[in-house]
Amino acid sequence: MRVAYHEQMSDLATQLADMCRLAEESMERATEALLQADLSLAEQVITKNEQIEQLSVSCEEKAFALLALQAPVAGDLRQVISGIQIVADLDRMGALALHVAKITRRRHPNHALPEEVNGYFAEMGRVAVALGAAAREVLLTRDPERAARLQEEDDAMDDLHKHLFTVLMDRDWSHGVAAAVDVTLLGRFYERFADHAVQVARRVIFLATGRMPGQLPEHELLQED
Amino acid sequence: MRVAYHEQMSDLATQLADMCRLAEESMERATEALLQADLSLAEQVITKNEQIEQLSVSCEEKAFALLALQAPVAGDLRQVISGIQIVADLDRMGALALHVAKITRRRHPNHALPEEVNGYFAEMGRVAVALGAAAREVLLTRDPERAARLQEEDDAMDDLHKHLFTVLMDRDWSHGVAAAVDVTLLGRFYERFADHAVQVARRVIFLATGRMPGQLPEHELLQED
């Protein structure tokens, strides 16, 4: 029983890491599609999302079967519960990459982004994918120190997001309202993707330390308030 | 043991319903604050959010203690796991109401909304609060038929949101980019609030039927794609 149990636990951890990798890849491709107005790449992201959703259902079922059949206690119990919560975060990360791809598809053959903000999104995409990779590393290693560093790395995303809003709001924005709406939503999608990666890492801290994480202080848009 | 156990289960259900009521009230006040540019009402929502966050931590702890000490099985196990997932949705509903209040505070003494879209937000606020109340009813009654109806009621939110984007994108929007950015984000917050209320109901369906919910097909912005 114990052997089967540990196999199931490690199987669940591997599936969570797989799901995280798919979400990272989706965000990487979605960003490339966005920057290049590449419809076929956007379509790939949209199609691939099904795979993330299937993994999500499979992870939840696996976790539930573990609880029902093995009735784990203490640290093992924490691990399964965290797994169930982490599935929801990874699922959202996939959905946010999907949203980026859908905006790209909707605007094709035009670019959704005015050239002026391409640099911001190239960088936000890079940071988002790096945070996804870091969250995956944390899922596999359960290293609480690496998990804690993720939160700092997310500061780069917040800075980019703040600057993006400055460009939108404070300068002579000459690209019209429709582009501003797209840029606003896209900025939000990248920021939320990063927030969920940080949340995954926070849940691993809980796993490793047994302390309940407090609420994630969500990074406010335009932090001057 | 069983008596204590049932008390704990019912205590958890009551706390979830309380949390849902707080999220509804927050969204109701935040909408009023937004429409009236009422700073003190916005501040109330911002202060009250701490209470939602505390309840969220308390619900998670309660659910975890139940699992650890009582090792529930079958339907009871499902109920506790769903409870943990529902906490995350209710917590986001509170955070989304908080975002609405913060935009109101940031723009004060100005109105964040151009008068032209007030009607949309009055109605989106009404639908959001109604969906919150329906989700709470479902939490207390666990009535799967009522839960299923919620998804239909969410269609009203999607329609409002789509129309709002038409106003933003297609007509002569004369209110500038800054207002467009606020309206875009605010629209998204109301839509996500409604999505989470629907998700709470879906999780109760899982509770009542034992079938794993599939992924929530998130309502896409601008559904023409």
TrEMBL record, chains A, B:
Name of the protein in its database record: Phosphate-specific transport system accessory protein PhoU
Main location: cytoplasm
Pfam family, one: PhoU
Assembly mode: Homodimer.
Keyword Transport: yes
Signal peptide positions (record): none
Cited NCBIfam families: phoU_full
Chain's gene name: phoU
Localization per Swiss-Prot or TrEMBL: Cytoplasm
Cellular component terms (Gene Ontology): cytoplasm
Source organism of the structure: Speluncibacter jeojiensis
GO biological process, one term: phosphate ion transport
Alphabetical keyword list: Cytoplasm, Phosphate transport, Transport
UniProt keyword annotation of Transport present: yes
Protein function: Plays a role in the regulation of phosphate uptake.
Protein family: Belongs to the PhoU family.
Domain PhoU as annotated: residue spans: 17-103, 122-204
